[in-house]
């Protein structure tokens, strides 16, 4: 079973086909999760989440009452806590619901402290073990996470990808892509942006010995340069 | 002298008053810099940059010709290079133009590999020495960087702030804010989001012994929750 979780990030950054993604998930009996305000945003899309997680402190009383009425499994997190709402959601999805993978929507845009929490929570020792099964997806980016070892990165229909060391990493090698990197070690996050697949349909190889690496697949959106000032 | 640099990030994330900011800078004879497509975006705002830095590989020939015609100091970076365009810009601003501080605009939104480059380039040993003099500014966030030591963080007119360890950090302490933290050490990036100033106008204290820390001041934007689906 796949899980789809919607966080509270701005709608402008959601995948353009988010409603189709979620309706298809619902038809497949995948798990649909709302995190905090994400539960309300799912209801606005006409989709009742199977599971809601949050402290709900940003919701009005009537909004929370609506969720409590419709959602079968509601979890209340502690506002002053060891886990963020998203971290708690990941643990419940993998440990209790035993999902095989998790697609996180609404994780980007808006407040940058929120985005960085979502991007870097995979480093939390209690989340790390699930990181390779988690994808962050928005309108123009898809983010995957990798643990040490040798990886074949499947071709994706995005013109660019960046490789980010999220922590100290040893012997990072990128092979069979447009730009190569060999046995690179670094003690802090560094981002190799704007790499490309060597050819349409062609995988590339990624390997490293320590830490965590993220691959960010991305595309440009034309709209950005054609707005009125 | 202050420098203002515009990168190529999407306009939706620019400060709402970006034109006023730049016109005021121009009147003050501050340095205005365009990085790659940012030079063209400045011209679209009616502001000719004093300095342009980039490889310009995303520009059309006529667009590049326009910049070459109007900008007094143009620098061409090498597309396969040791420094990104933004890193090169920072070095030129501080080393050649001897600016006192730098405000970076257009650094957020859009392609996440690009944003992460902008966020984490301060860790580059050649940029690190300037990091405390650099601010990233967008529509709802202001990002500052701190080196080890004791810091009094001046009150800012933002309701929230997050504290992010950008690398391994020792003995991180946050005092005199809404939520405290004492002597926290961590080997990788971790974000303490949604903290608040204790009172309007009241500073807080930040100290740590190793690494680099960023403070992200932020506000919510109502618009995010009132769009049509």
Please give a structural write-up.
The structure is a homodimer of 229-residue chains. Chain A has 2 domains: 2-139, Thiamin pyrophosphokinase, catalytic domain (Rossmann fold, 3-Layer(aba) Sandwich); 144-225, Thiamin pyrophosphokinase, catalytic domain (Rossmann fold, 3-Layer(aba) Sandwich), CATH 3.40.50.10240. The first copy, chain A, contains 5 helices and 14 strands. Chain A has helices spanning 18-27, 37-44, 61-70, 85-96, 112-120; strands at residues 2-6, 31-35, 51-54, 73-76, 101-105, 134-137, 141-146, 149-153, 160-165, 169-175, 181-186, 190-195, 204-208, 213-218. Chain A has a 10-stranded mixed beta sheet, sandwiched between helices. The first copy, chain A, has a 4-stranded antiparallel beta sheet with strand order 8-13-10-11, with no helix packed on it. In chain A, helix 3 (61-70) links the parallel strand 3 and strand 4 (73-76). The longest helix of chain A has 12 residues, at 85-96. The first copy, chain A, is globular, with a radius of gyration of 18 Å. At the A-B interface, helix 2, helix 5, strand 9 and strand 12 of A face helix 2, helix 5, strand 9 and strand 12 of B.
Helix content of chain A: 10-25%
Estimate nothing, just give the exact number of structural domains of chain A.
2
Largest interface: A-B, 53 and 53 residues
Largest sheet of chain A: 10 strands, mixed
Number of helices of chain A: 5
Name the average pLDDT of chain A.
94
GO molecular function (chains A, B): ATP binding; kinase activity; thiamine binding; thiamine diphosphokinase activity
GO biological process, one term (chains A, B): thiamine diphosphate biosynthetic process
EC number (chains A, B): 2.7.6.2
Pfam family, one (chains A, B): TPK_catalytic
